[in-house]
Design goal:
Layout lengths: L1 E5 L13 H11 L3 E7 L12 E5 L2 E6 L9 H25 L3 E4 L6 H12 L2 E6 L5 H7 L6 H16 L2 E4 L5 H6 L7 E3 L18 H12 L3 E6 L8 H10 L5 E6 L5 H10 L5 E4 L7 H6 L3 E5 L13 H8 L4 E4 L6 H5 L2 E4 L4 H12 L3 H18 L2 H21 L1
Parallel strand pairs: 1-2, 1-5, 2-4, 5-6, 6-7, 7-8, 9-10, 9-12, 10-11, 12-13, 13-14
Antiparallel strand pairs: 3-4
InterPro entries: Glyco_trans_4-like_N
Protein name: Glycosyltransferase family 4 protein
Pfam families: Glyco_trans_1_4, Glyco_trans_4_4
Length: 413
């Protein structure tokens, strides 16, 4: 089949996040399908930005659509989104003529790409799929305090309802969205759950060596006999890293070291706070390439992931970094209250209350009192869980299997 994958923020191992579109597309290419990825030249989640135009990456045909750079979540990002959608809309006839897609996937985190994807699908007579990463406008409303009456929130709500009405299939990474989608008009027979995952091949080869500053920081913590607690990922408000910093303050006289690797909107403020509060055992280090993540995680005693206490997580969570933690065999401390909890389901660590520095500090104390063998057994349970349910070869097949009824209906017309 020919698959057109519309994802504003799509990346690759060479460029950085987001990775899911790349891994699904690569598996589909390996299965014999053709994939056209359409993405923007600028995304705040990438480590490096591509050049506008076509590019072939591991068998996937990328089309990088020229968009302006931006910072933060203000008008600059809105202009970036508008430029991407407007330019892809204009190229829709050419995309259809060149690729003749059988499936068109709208997958840009925000839902407004559904109108562009619907135009392409109708021109091609293709199956239209809406892929749900986050629930918009609920995400900016509940996570960032945006008013439901804000024009952007209204636009997102309109797009979400359009997707529920017009898509042949809705694929959600979040596992508990059924009621929400039904309330927006979706026939739940058209809903499929396909969570995030990992590429098992990346964990079979010897990991790339760690950057010197990261390796040295971890070595010092180990030499001191400390419990090494790590975090690898974005540093934004949803990651609730202030809670980890406050837990570190409570543990400042206990044998625990914290190593944070990543970047994001909150990085500068968090680093300033670490210095101002003289948290000498909390170390922030610049992002490392994805190929070094396995080596970093292998050096940790505990991997941390935290969330805000917000109602939107009742629909479930699907964090990429947690899949990496579990595949690496890490013992995980998970600060969350959500509709699902892979840590509790797999038994790979401890779950504590979110937004509670005391709960995080207590959880780390409990893990520090366990033997190395007990923590290793936890980590092994996480690896087994991911291998059974969250590898991209499995998820890519599940995605296309969910498309089959809609494809059959289209072919019967």
């Amino acid at each position: 089949m020919n698959i057109l994958y519309l994802n504003h923020y799509a990346g690759s191992p060479a460029l950085g996040m987001e990775y899911r579109p790349y891994y699904l597309a690569r598996e589909w290419v390996r299965m014999g399908h053709e994939v056209q990825m359409v993405a923007a030249t600028y995304s705040h989640v990438r480590a490096r930005q591509p050049v506008a135009g076509p590019e072939r990456v591991d068998g996937i045909d990328y089309l990088w659509v020229d968009t302006p750079a931006y910072q933060g979540n203000g008008l600059g990002r809105v202009r970036n989104i508008w430029a991407f959608l407007r330019r892809v809309w204009a190229q829709a006839p050419a995309l259809v003529a060149r690729q003749r897609p059988d499936i068109v996937i709208a997958s840009s985190t925000y839902p407004m790409d559904i109108w562009v994807a619907r135009r392409i699908a109708r021109l091609a007579g293709a199956v239209l799929v809406h892929e749900v990463h986050d629930l918009w406008p609920l995400s900016p409303i509940e996570l960032s305090g945006m008013s439901p009456g804000h024009p952007f929130a209204r636009l997102c709500a309109w797009a979400e309802k359009t997707a529920c009405r017009d898509a042949d299939l809705v694929v959600s990474m979040l596992p508990k969205v059924h009621q929400h989608m039904a309330e927006r008009g979706l026939d739940l027979r058209k809903l499929a759950i396909v969570p995030n995952g990992i590429d098992p091949a990346e964990w079979q080869a010897a990991p790339a060596p760690l950057r010197e500053d990261v390796a040295a920081t971890l070595a010092v913590a180990r030499a001191r006999g400390h419990l090494v607690v790590g975090y690898a990922g974005s540093m934004g408000r949803p990651n609730a890293l202030d809670v980890l910093v406050e837990a570190a303050d409570r543990l400042r006289y206990e044998p625990v070291s914290f190593v944070l690797v990543g970047d994001g909107h909150e990085r500068e403020r968090l680093v300033g706070r670490i210095h101002e509060e003289l948290l000498e055992r909390v170390h922030w280090l610049a992002p490392i390439p994805k190929a070094q993540i396995p080596a970093f995680l292998a050096e940790l005693d505990v991997a941390y992931i935290g969330w805000q206490r917000v109602p939107i997580y009742r629909f479930g969570i699907a964090p990429n970094k947690l899949m990496d933690y579990m595949m690496a065999g890490c013992t995980v401390l998970h600060a969350v209250e959500a509709g699902n909890d892979p840590v509790a389901e797999s038994g790979c660590g401890l779950t504590v209350a979110p937004e509670s520095p005391d709960a995080v500090a207590d959880g780390l104390r409990r893990l520090s009192h366990m033997s190395h063998r007990e923590r290793a057994e936890m980590g092994q349970r996480g690896t087994a869980f991911v291998q059974a349910h969250h590898t991209y070869p499995v998820l890519a097949r599940r995605f296309l299997q969910a498309c089959e009824p809609a494809l059959a209906r289209r072919r019967a017309l």
